[in-house]
Design a protein that fits this description.
Elements (H helix, E strand, L loop, with lengths): L27 E2 L7 E5 L5 H13 L4 E4 L5 H12 L3 E5 L8 E5 L7 E4 L4 H11 L3 E7 L10 H9 L3 E3 L8 E6 L5 E5 L6 H9 L7 E5 L7 H13 L5 E4 L2 E4 L9 E2 L8 H10 L1 E6 L12 H4 L6 E5 L2 E5 L14 E3 L7 H8 L6 E4 L11 H11 L3 E5 L2 E5 L6 E3 L5 H11 L5 E3 L12 H9 L14
Parallel strand pairs: 2-15, 3-14, 6-7, 10-11, 18-19, 22-23
Antiparallel strand pairs: 1-23, 3-5, 4-5, 7-9, 8-9, 11-13, 12-13, 15-17, 16-17, 19-21, 20-21
Helix pairs in contact: 1-2, 1-3, 1-6, 3-5, 5-6, 7-11, 9-11
Length: 469
Amino acid sequence: MAISKIAQPQFSPYGDDQPVPDDTPGAWPAPAASGPLSASLQLPGSKSLTNRELVLAALADGPSLLRAPLHSRDSALMIQALRTLGTRIDEVEGSGAFGPDLLVTPGELTGGGYIDCGLAGTVMRFLPPVAALALGPVAFDGDEGARRRPMRTVIDALRALGVDVNDDGRGALPFSLYGTGSVEGGELSIDASASSQFVSGLLLVAPRFTRGLALRHTGEKLPSLPHIEMTIATLAARGVVVENPEPGVWVVPPAVIRSRDVDLEPDLSNAAPFLAAAVVAGGTVSIQGWPVETTQVGAHLARLLPLFGATVTVDGTTLTVDGGAGIVGGATFPGVDIDLSMGGELAPPLVALAALASSPSRITGIGHLRGHETDRLAALAAEINALGGSVTELDDGLEITPRPLHGGLWHSYEDHRMATAGALLGLAVEGVFVDDIGTTAKTLPQFPELWAGPLLGISRPSVNPLELL
């Protein structure tokens, strides 16, 4: 599958009653809720788990089968990158509803290629340490937005480990490295304040370093700790025990990464806008296949959404959110004051909900979102304010003062979570248009179809951005 910028659908999937703004032909009209929901959905596999398992399978001692993996732009970029480095990855028939399983057969890591990171943080932060184990040069670049994402920590870490890296002093994409076939490892200190992916990328590859790795985080804050815990758990399942003797210190011994067959969990962070839709529209939304135990940060939705007036229940492996009458039906909930440092990726839908609350909210612990696909704090503030809201940036978060909202163009900034936040607000605010719904293909290509069909019961088919890759 060729990887390219997602094309923008040039038609309205919801009829012709909402004219597309003249300045953005092809903008997606976010459908308003016509009544309470009664929806039950399945979602594709976790992006975070899929890309971690792809890396570990490529470094393992034999073939691994990944069942029900995510098929999206981010995972396709990871697959293409690993193939470039010498890994064989075959699509095989599986039982998943969203695409084939993946059979990953490790090979000798080879350089001499180019890796397109797109806008995928997991590719640009996880693959350079892998490429350092290859023999020969490897070049890295990505979308224009990727060149603005923090990468200096990765580049400096590789240099400290003795890897030859050429970035012309940018500390960012594009850059190249020359792998010698091995990395000595040993002790390493980094500042991972901008992203937990800096830690995870090194931990995933550290068992293959000659001396393993003793990694220390030197910054004051470390965002998204659950993602590091996820990395440690995936390593443990493959026989690598990571010690954490004190906060911010991880010790990985040189070890064999065992092959294994893996069943991928659905992406719980991608569940956020669907579950939050029950709060806005009212009624119930259920997600099937909700894991009993998980390291995904989306699991925190079970305790966060009740703060917005919802009731959450779990029956076996089905999680259900009941929004009662919902905001559309006249229900109200007070503002919230929450620290989201454990999972900033949940911020966009929760900020959207806060904009519909009855009193002000403060959502903090998310300063690192300025370095995500876009500056999400600035983007959320700009887009909600453009619809009549009042959002103020803080050093480490946002302050949201609810005001009546009106329709208008919602910019996605090539950020999948910005696009879905616009769709969520559109349930309660008529006339919201998302300029590029295709950007959801980064982690959930089926978003327009799932939003229209299983969630809202709109029968007219929507666009599947995956078909536009």
